[in-house]
Amino acid sequence: MVKKEWYLEYRIKKNRPGLLGDISSLLGMLSINIVTINGVDDKSRGLLMRAESEDQIKRLDSILMTMDTIEIVKLREPKLRDRMAVRHGRYIERDADDRKTFRFIRSELGLLVDFMAELYKMEGHRLIGVRGMPRVGKTESIVAASVCANKKWLFMSSTMIKQTVREQLLRDEYSSNNIFIFDGVMSAKRAGEKHWQLVREVMQLPAVKVVEHPDVFAENSDYSLDDFDYIIELRHEPDEEITYEAVEKNNLFQDSNFGGFNF
């Protein structure tokens, strides 16, 4: 029988020597294997486990509920945020009102790249928006995640190296294994109908598409923010406001150069 993964997170109510050993022994008696274990947000301990049947998990749950030293926080099939929490020792911040929006700061680029790489590995169509101020690391994170996921990235519109607005793809570039990257500002302000026709073609592919500045992209296209599966916000500091005033002051939308900005 194929073993299935589960996620257990518990909070310690009464810390005492040997507590983790007791829980590990309990899992062993129930023939449940520990895959990974780590502290989570300095408050809880998280474990990824493998079990052959759901009955094993139900028995584990019933026994843990009788223990007065711990409080079960979660016992479920692991979600992506659970896996990230065990790997990195903390949960990714998620918007309380918009559940598809995830927040990072620049010092968490490693966590962000790992998270995006996992999104890239998912099969089928995924539309990901990335918000952030200039030089915060948006494009670099998108590309680094592509490398981690072993995917080829294609800039459909970009200012990474030079102004790029593509109007066609080569035959072998129409691949669901590619990551298609758009700069919402470039597509909105510099592209013609041929580019937007290509955008519509790419959107039909069962592949991952990443859009920097999704708000500008949505305002100037047939797509809306509701079409995005994930929105990632990257800031220098937690309280930084993401605005486009800096873009306007540096004449990004004019025909001259882009004022040194790297979006």
TrEMBL record:
The lineage of its organism: Bacteria, Bacillati, Bacillota, Bacilli, Bacillales. Pfam families: DUF3388. It comes from the Bacteria. Residues 72-261 form the DUF3388 domain. InterPro entries: ACT-like_dom_sf (IPR045865), DUF3388 (IPR024514), UCP021288_ACT (IPR016784). This is DUF3388 domain-containing protein.
